[in-house]
Amino acid sequence: MNYLGHAFLSFGNSEILVGNMIGDHVKGRLALQHYPDGIRKGIELHRKIDEFTDNHPSVSRAKLIFREDYGLYAGAITDTVFDHFLANDPKYFASPDALLQFTRQTYTQIEEHSTHLPPDFAAYFPHMREYNWLLGYRSMKGVERSLQGLARRAKHMPASDKAYTAFVMGYYHLNQCYFELIDDVVKMAKAYTL
């Protein structure tokens, strides 16, 4: 799961949300001691989500679509396209407006804890909010932009055009893989947070 997935799997708890969103920017166990308990729990949840999804059979099958052209970046690409399926999942977001409201609430909660944002996340958070990256996952064009952004930020990832084409061509297979994952990861995250 990418940004939308991590936000969603925080279940409205603002400190867990912040930790979950910044999880990729906090390295090692020692760094955790600099955060309040709730944010630390969110960072740990982020790591558990990543570990759980990386080892889920449906994610392994989905990554195969991207592995030949993108190698180790297949996982990050899969995370991105799974956010598209989450954004369009009527079980969790009944309408585009429901997703929009969720994204606004998410940005507000992150802003309320801005003093705890790592510098690199803090640097691009205003751009994320202004262009509503979380809502962008809902559209095909938004996925294309997200993949382009991933390629810009990743040091050695090739251009994202083949990843987008593979996403379009493998859409139904990837959607099935998402559906095989989502209830399992929701159950795991709820057990950890509640």
Give structural notes:
The protein is built from 11 helices and no strands. By secondary structure, it is mainly alpha-helical. It has one domain. Helix 3 (about 35-55) packs antiparallel against helix 11, helix 4 (about 55-70) crosses helix 11 (about 170-194) and helix 5 (about 75-85) crosses helix 11. The mean pLDDT is about 95.
Rg, Å, rounded: 16 Å
Q: How many runs of DSSP E, i.e. beta strands? A: 0
Number of domains: 1
State the secondary-structure class.
mainly alpha
List the main descriptive attributes of the protein structure presented here.
72% helix; globular; mainly alpha; 194 residues; 11 helices
Chart the SSEs and their pairings.
Blueprint: H1 3-8, H2 14-22, H3 37-54, H4 57-70, H5 74-87, H6 96-112, H7 119-130, H8 133-136, H9 140-153, H10 161-169, H11 171-193
Give a short summary of the structure:
The chain is mostly helical and 194 residues long. The chain is 72% helix and 0% strand.
